[in-house]
């Protein structure tokens, strides 16, 4: 009889533990899903409230402590078509660490801008110029992670990886030389998407800085 009571008690304790653990996991999932919904709603609101085309007066980027590229880039009169087509099929949030991971898909982006460029490639080769450029991207995927301020509905310390299926460049003003610009366009159209795949670490730093600057400009 005592043995039966012990077995019953252990079984009951096991059921209670399993139920409690189940409930905790369920609550954790619900909270994470709710926070993910907040991020998704914030992203959708940001997209919805943004004009399409999106216009930004000026962006500046400095490439420092980088063996591949150093110097600066200034972009003005940036115009981006395709913002309203952005979707985020995957969002995950870790509650206690306030870390988020998300995937963003962009079917098409049509971009035009004026630029001023003064850089060194590999610390040796100068790459400079200024002009009016246009770029068409197709099949963009951005996987991003960072910190999320749920109360402030803000994203911080963003690290992003980029993949692009197809790109068409019409760049002007490289080395202030039309023939060189035509050669650059040819090389970019043939190799840009493969470059993105092969140099993910460098591309991640550039795109992460661009996304942070873009989000700051929209606050």
TrEMBL record:
Q: Which UniProt keywords apply?
A: Signal
Report which superkingdom the organism of origin falls in. Answer: Eukaryota
Residues annotated as signal peptide = 1-18
Q: Which residues cross the membrane?
A: none
Gene Ontology CC terms:
extracellular space
Tell me which species this is from.
Phaedon cochleariae
Protein's name according to its UniProt entry: Uncharacterized protein
Under the heading Pfam families, the entry gives: JHBP (PF06585)
Which lineage? Answer: Eukaryota, Metazoa, Ecdysozoa, Arthropoda, Hexapoda
């Amino acid at each position: 009889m005592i043995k039966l009571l012990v077995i019953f008690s252990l079984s009951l304790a096991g059921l209670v533990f399993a139920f409690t653990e189940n409930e905790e996991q369920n609550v954790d999932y619900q909270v994470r899903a709710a926070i993910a919904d907040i991020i998704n709603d914030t992203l959708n609101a940001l997209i919805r409230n943004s004009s399409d085309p999106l216009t930004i007066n000026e962006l500046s980027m400095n490439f420092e402590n980088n063996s591949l590229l150093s110097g600066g880039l200034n972009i003005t009169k940036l115009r981006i078509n395709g913002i309203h087509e952005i979707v985020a099929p995957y969002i995950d949030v870790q509650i206690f660490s306030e870390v988020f991971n998300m995937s963003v898909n962009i079917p098409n982006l049509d971009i035009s801008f004026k630029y001023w460029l003064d850089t060194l490639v590999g610390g040796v080769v100068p790459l400079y110029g200024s002009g009016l450029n246009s770029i068409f991207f197709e099949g963009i995927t951005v996987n991003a992670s960072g910190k999320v301020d749920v109360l402030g509905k803000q994203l911080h310390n963003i690290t992003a990886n980029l993949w692009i299926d197809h790109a068409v460049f019409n760049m002007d003003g490289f080395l202030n030389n039309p023939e060189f610009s035509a050669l650059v366009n040819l090389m970019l159209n043939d190799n840009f998407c493969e470059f993105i795949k092969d140099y993910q670490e460098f591309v991640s730093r550039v795109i992460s800085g661009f996304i942070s600057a873009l989000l700051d400009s929209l606050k």
